[in-house]
Specification:
Layout lengths: L1 H10 L9 H9 L7 H11 L5 H25 L1 E4 L3 E6 L5 E6 L3 E8 L1 H6 L1 E8 L11 E7 H12 L18 E6 L12 H20 L16 H27 L3 E5 L2 E6 L4 E7 L3 E9 H5 L2 E8 L5 H4 L1 E7 H11 L11 H29 L3 H22 L2 E4 L3 E6 L3 E8 L3 E7 L2 H6 L1 E8 L5 E8 L3 H7 L14
Antiparallel strand pairs: 1-2, 2-3, 4-5, 4-10, 5-6, 7-8, 8-9, 9-10, 11-12, 11-16, 12-13, 14-15, 15-16, 17-18, 18-19
Length: about 500
């Protein structure tokens, strides 16, 4: 009986605590105390504290002590345990919460190191699991404030679905050989001004500067009125300065996020490391990858650049965590995508009816404005409305042709591909086993043209990827060739 009890105790996962240094880290950042600030402010106001240096010092000391106390309590009440079958996290100050996630539901692990974490020698481990979302939380499980060695051990343990052994001599097992899949070249930062997401930060900064300028006193506020912008030189300087800020800001933003990006395969995992200020170490299981997307914005196509994302089953925040190439040449992007998913071959163009449909939809607005302009010319002499309508119609022709050129699909022995989009052209490579269902949509106008849109339903990425305006008669064959044999039901006649 005693032997059985001792063996049971050995198999139980050991509850661990974060490093005590995390108490200082959370005290400095007021991590736990922030939720109490809204309740403290009315209390302070009700006490009738006056101004002065003494009051300010008392408030600073009080808030710091509150932050220290809540951080210490949170550290004391937080434990985690990783066993051979599950990960258990216990937390909570007033109400106790115990969350258990089976190892086979874990989809990825990210080790994050901010500047303050590096100062204290700590890391934050995010465990992403397809075990149901937690209300109000972005991550499934977060273990904050462990040492770098413990973070690496925890990452290896949960991704290999087994308990990583602790060696008596303090050493670690030999790491599997690494195979480099990609490395970020700093010259690729010059692509950043062509990517909308990297322009968002400098645009927000310019807006904040304008709001700040409006709050300045009138005697120091820059004169940006109509008189100051009347000259061509002043207008050119203003526009040029704004462009410099946008370009420089996008490059700096891309460098902060992607500096030192490196993608390697180690054993059964893909590991991406990136970041200048906050260093992120994201690890994904190769067996969970079901496909890849290669996206090219309108500006990126001009310089032959692209981005690559992995489609991983059950992965949360897939746009960031599944990113395998944040920015780079198109040739590099396709080389990486084909290493993950077998290339199904060249795309098949969609029928001419799809091109006519794209041209009609692209020129429809211009034609309506032209007709309205003819009526406005007769009634009010507004001949310029006709010119606007004709211009929109002419511009719609290359737009429609470009949208048609973006369409295509292909099937291979183990994978298939669909492509669509004009402003952001996205081609998806998917494994046959990724498909869990098909959905066919056909509008009235598509029926008249003999077209239909078929959606491949998958448990990764956006959840579905469409082949738009295919020939209706080709859908059954495409669905059967692009998935498992169960898709043969598409070829059966309707009852």
């Amino acid at each position: 009986m005693r032997e059985r009890i001792e063996q049971s105790d050995v198999s139980e996962p050991v509850a661990r605590r974060a490093s005590p240094l995390v108490v200082l880290l959370h005290t400095v950042t007021f991590r736990q105390a922030r939720q109490f600030v809204p309740a403290v402010i009315p209390i302070v106001a009700a006490t009738g504290f006056g101004g002065g240096r003494t009051t300010v010092i008392a408030l600073v000391v009080g808030v710091t002590l509150l932050s220290l106390g809540t951080a210490a309590l949170s550290w004391w009440r937080f434990t985690y345990a990783d066993g051979p079958s599950s990960v258990v996290v216990t937390r909570g100050l007033l109400s106790r919460s115990v969350r258990t996630v089976p190892n086979d539901r874990i989809r990825g692990v990210e080790v994050e190191t901010s500047v303050l974490h590096r100062l204290f020698g700590l890391v934050r481990v995010r465990i992403d699991a397809a075990a149901g979302a937690v209300a109000g939380k972005e991550e499934e499980l977060v273990v904050d404030g462990v040492t770098r060695a413990e973070g690496d051990r925890l990452r290896a343990a949960v991704l290999t679905h087994r308990q990583a052994p602790d060696r008596a001599d303090g050493g670690t097992e030999a790491a599997p050989a690494e195979e480099e899949f990609g490395r970020f070249d700093n010259r690729w930062l010059l692509y950043a001004p062509l990517v909308g997401s990297y322009l968002a930060l400098p645009l927000a900064a310019v807006g904040a500067l304008f709001r700040l300028a409006q709050e300045l006193p009138e005697n120091v506020r820059p004169n940006l009125g109509e008189a100051a912008l009347a000259s061509v030189r002043a207008l050119g300087i203003t526009v040029g300065g704004a462009l410099v800020v946008l370009v420089a800001g996008s490059v700096v933003g891309a460098a902060i996020v992607n500096w030192g990006f490196r993608l390697v395969r180690r054993g059964g995992s893909l590991i991406a490391v990136r970041g200048l200020i906050t260093r992120r170490h994201t690890e994904l299981e190769v067996d969970r990858i079901r496909g890849a997307t290669v996206a090219e914005g309108a500006g990126m196509r001009l310089v032959h650049a692209a981005r690559v994302n992995a489609l991983v089953t059950g992965l949360g925040d897939a746009t960031r965590r599944g990113q395998l190439l944040p920015l780079g040449p198109r040739s590099e992007a396709w080389t990486l995508a084909r290493r993950l998913v077998e290339d199904p071959g060249p795309l098949v163009a969609h029928p001419p009816a799809a091109r006519r449909r794209r041209l009609v939809r692209a020129t429809f607005a211009g034609l309506m404005v032209t007709v309205a302009g003819m009526l406005a010319t007769v009634l009010a002499g507004w001949w310029w409305v006709v010119l606007v309508g004709l211009a929109l119609t002419v511009l719609g022709i290359p737009l429609g042709r470009g949208r048609y050129a973006a369409l295509g699909h292909a099937t291979g022995p183990r994978s298939f591909s669909v492509r669509s989009g004009w402003l952001v052209r996205e081609q998806v490579l998917l494994q046959h086993r990724a498909v869990v269902g098909w959905q066919v949509r056909q509008s009235f106008f598509q029926r008249q043209a003999g077209l239909a849109t078929v959606l491949a339903c998958v448990g990764a990425g956006r959840g579905g990827y469409a082949a738009i305006d295919m020939a209706a008669g080709d859908i059954a064959g495409f669905a059967l060739a692009a998935s498992e044999p169960w898709a043969a039901t598409f070829s059966r006649p309707a009852p």
